[in-house]
Amino acid sequence: MTPTHESLLGVRAVAAQAAPALWATPLQMGELFPRGVTQYAVGGVMVAAGIAVIYLGTAIIPGNSTFLETTLSYVSGQERFQRPRFLRSRDWRVVFAVSIVAGAAVWGLLLDPGAFVTRVQWWRLFFGGILVGIGTRLGKGCTAGHGVCGLGSASHTSIVNVILFVGVAILTAAVVQLAGVSP
Amino acid sequence: MSSSPDRHPLFYPLIVLGGLIQGFGLAYSGMARPEVVVDFLQFDDLGLVLVMGGAAVVSGVVFWAAPRFLDRAPLTGDVYTRRVKSMDRNVVVGGVVFGVGWGISGICPGAAYASLGVGNLPILWAFAGMFLGAYLHGFWRSRNSSAESVSTVADD
């Protein structure tokens, strides 16, 4: 009886050691995704579904950042903005962008009453926005064009671009955090 | 709309439908909130991996299947292609510049449009910045276009 009792104690001791390690997996999941995972996965599928609907109907691969330049063609005579392919696509790109605004508003009205207002400071949005405008146009695409459409096309160009912009953004966000800027 | 070629009557309705779905998805995913993006970049919440991963899987299936199994797009008559851009130095420099901007602001173009839709008026600062940046880039490219080859074919 005694050996059995001792071995049970041993098992209990081992279990006590092992249990935190076993629990660590769900705990870490919670730490990695403190807001849960469902909305991220469903939202991502919907982002691509919107692109797929347009693509399957028209064979157009609709990125989001070309809109910035094609829309400038309405007000600027710069040669870059007046290129025929920009003039050809500028109308539907406006319709597409306005529809994205409307789609987000539908979500806000249906599922999340009350406007969301960011606490991120205005100068981060403005000066960061300038670099986003330059970088997405120079680099031939954004999170949608390279990140969703380009990766979905297994484009080496897009893979390089995405690795760069995600990596640099992580470094930049770390610098912003170290500088004590929050939010 | 005078500059547009003749479009199929369902062309614009389809663009609207696609935009509504994407805008809803961007808002639902949280990407319309700069805070969620910054939390991802600072490893406090890795949810954005699932957004981009989920989106890339779906687009991967569609961009793989359509050119193989479908003929031509019903509304335009165009053939289906994949999104493959030429590689050059601009892709590298642009990616780095975009990364700095994304890291500072937590905003990319599509997410900014959706952010306006959820009532986030301060995002207009990002709109002003992005249009200014796109203008500066276009101004610079127009000035240098004579010296540059016409190799930049398509940008999204």
Number of helices in the DSSP assignment of chain B: 6
Structural class given helices, strands, pairing of chain B? mainly alpha
Order of helices and strands of chain B: HHHHHH
N- and C-termini, Cα separation of chain B: 21 Å
Spans where pLDDT lies below 50 across 5 or more residues of chain A: 19-24
- Assign an overall shape of chain A: globular
Query: Tally the helices of chain A: what do you get?
Result: 7
Q: Largest beta sheet of chain B, briefly?
A: none
Number of strands of chain B: 0
Report how far the terminal alpha carbons of chain A are from each other: 63 Å
The Rg value of chain B, from CA coordinates, equals 18 Å
- Molecular shape of chain B: globular
Major beta sheet summary of chain A: none
Low-confidence stretches of chain B: none
The domain count of chain B comes to 1
Fraction of residues in helix of chain B? 55-70%
What's the pLDDT, averaged over the residues of chain B? 92
Assembly state here? Answer: heterodimer
Structural class call of chain A reads mainly alpha
The fraction of residues assigned to DSSP E strands of chain B is under 5%
String of helices and strands of chain A: HHHHHHH
